[in-house]
Amino acid sequence: MTGPFRRWRESRGRLPGKLHAELEAEGLELLEERVHAMVIYRGYEAPGQRPQSGVQKGLVTIALTARRIVVQGTGGIRLEIPRGATVTTEDPDEVRLAYDAATAIPPRAGEIELRLQSPRADAIHATLSEWMMRRSS
C-alpha cells in the first residue's frame, strides 16, 4: 500500500486531532477506536427533513469523558449520547446504546440505537453503565 492511502485507511474510525485534544482536556475515561458500529434510526425527525428510519454502518471511535459520550466515525457518524441512554448487551461481543433523539438534540424526535461490535464489549458495557449511574444520581 502506498503512504497516503495507508495513512487514510489507518485514520478511518479514529478521532480527528482537534476533537481528541478537546476530549483529553475533559479527562478521557474510555477511548475505543476503530470499532464496527451500526446506527439504527426509528421514526427520526429533524427540522426541515422528512421522518425517516434506516441503518447506517461505519467504523467509529467511542470516547467517554467526565462530561459526555462522543461517537464519531466513517459515513458521517457523529453522535453525542445523552446521559439517560439505555446501555445493554445481548451478545458477548456487542454493546447497545438506545435513546430518544430529543434528549440529545431537543428539536429532533424519534429513536436512535447504536450497536458497537468489540471483543471488549463487556468492559465497555461496564464502564458505560457505571458512568450512566454515576451521572443520574
What is the topology?
Blueprint: H1 3-11, H2 17-26, E1 28-45, E2 52-65, E3 69-73, E4 78-81, E5 86-91, E6 94-100, H3 101-104, E7 109-117, H4 121-136
Antiparallel strand pairs: 1-2, 1-7, 2-3, 3-4, 5-6, 6-7
Proportion of residues in extended strands: over 45%
State the major sheet: 7 strands, antiparallel
Unreliable segments of 5+ consecutive residues: none
| Whole-number tally of structural domains | 1
CATH class: Mainly Beta
CATH homologous superfamily placement: Pleckstrin-homology domain (PH domain)/Phosphotyrosine-binding domain (PTB)
Radius of gyration: 15 Å
H/E element string?
HHEEEEEEHEH
CATH architecture: Roll
Distance between the ends: 50 Å
Shape: globular
Supply the number of helical segments. 4
Query: Could you say which structural class the secondary elements and strand pairing correspond to?
Result: alpha+beta
Instruction: Work out the helicity level.
Output: 25-40%
Strand order of the largest sheet: 4-3-2-1-7-6-5
Mean pLDDT: 88
CATH topology: PH-domain like
Question: Descriptors for this entry?
Answer:
46% strand; 4 helices; alpha+beta; 28% helix
State the gist of this model.
This protein is an alpha+beta fold.
Architecture overview:
- This protein is an alpha+beta fold.
- It has a single domain (3-136), classed as PH-domain like (Roll), CATH 2.30.29.
- It is 28% helix and 46% strand.
- It is built from four helices and seven strands, in the order ααββββββαβα.
- A seven-stranded antiparallel sheet has the order 4-3-2-1-7-6-5.
- Strand 5 (86-91) and strand 6 form a beta hairpin.
- The longest helix has 16 residues, at 121-136.
- The radius of gyration is 15 Å and the shape is globular.
- The termini are far apart.
